[in-house]
């Protein structure tokens, strides 16, 4: 299924505002993330923002540490209402492999919702969703 109900809960509870107050990674102040990885054959999904290491996380939040590394980014452009932006993982991976990029094993991948690209449609009503995958060193 989708995680849309989880995202609605985040916005309804203003949880992103709380994260912004503790400090986000510079250049990511208005960028929300859906981070995913396979963990013991089960999908693990995190909603949040990138924060600097050693950020004090509020007691009622959880965090996961994602290492620095090389990341391949694909920009997906389309209409949010049609759902065309959310069924793309294999296509992005295939495109990166065609470029000669090697995907790291058991790695993180993420949807990055940059406010300037994702929330402001262009003249055709399309927005851009960033999709990132950690690459092998």
The biggest sheet amounts to: 5 strands, antiparallel
**Taking strands numbered 1, 2, ... along the chain, how are they ordered across the largest sheet?**
2-1-4-5-3
Q: How many whole angstroms does the radius of gyration measure?
A: 15 Å
Sheet/helix structural class: alpha+beta
How many DSSP helices?
A: 4
- Model regions low in confidence, pLDDT < 50 over at least 5 residues: none
User: Helix fraction?
Assistant: 10-25%
Distance between the termini: 32 Å
**Count of DSSP strands:** 5
Task: Characterize the overall form.
Answer: globular
Mean pLDDT: 90
> What is the succession of H and E elements?
HHEEEHEHE
The share of residues in extended strands comes to 25-35%
Question: Could you explain the architecture of this structure?
Answer:
There is one protein chain. Strand 1 and strand 2 form a beta hairpin. The model has no long low-confidence stretch (mean pLDDT 90). This protein is of the alpha+beta class. It has four helices and five strands. It has a five-stranded antiparallel β-sheet.
């Amino acid at each position: 299924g989708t995680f849309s109900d989880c995202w609605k809960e985040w916005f309804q509870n203003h949880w992103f505002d709380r994260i912004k107050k503790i400090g986000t990674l510079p250049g990511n102040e208005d960028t929300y993330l859906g981070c995913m990885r396979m963990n013991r054959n089960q999908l693990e999904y995190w909603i949040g923002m990138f924060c600097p290491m050693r950020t004090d996380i509020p007691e009622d939040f959880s965090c996961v540490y994602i290492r620095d590394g090389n990341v391949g980014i694909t920009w997906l452009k389309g209409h949010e209402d049609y759902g065309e932006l959310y069924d793309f993982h294999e296509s992005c991976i295939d495109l990166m492999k065609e470029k000669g990029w090697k995907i790291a094993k058991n790695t993180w991948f993420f949807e990055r919702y940059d406010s300037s690209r994702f929330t402001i449609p262009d003249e055709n009503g399309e927005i851009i969703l960033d999709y990132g995958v950690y690459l092998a060193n």
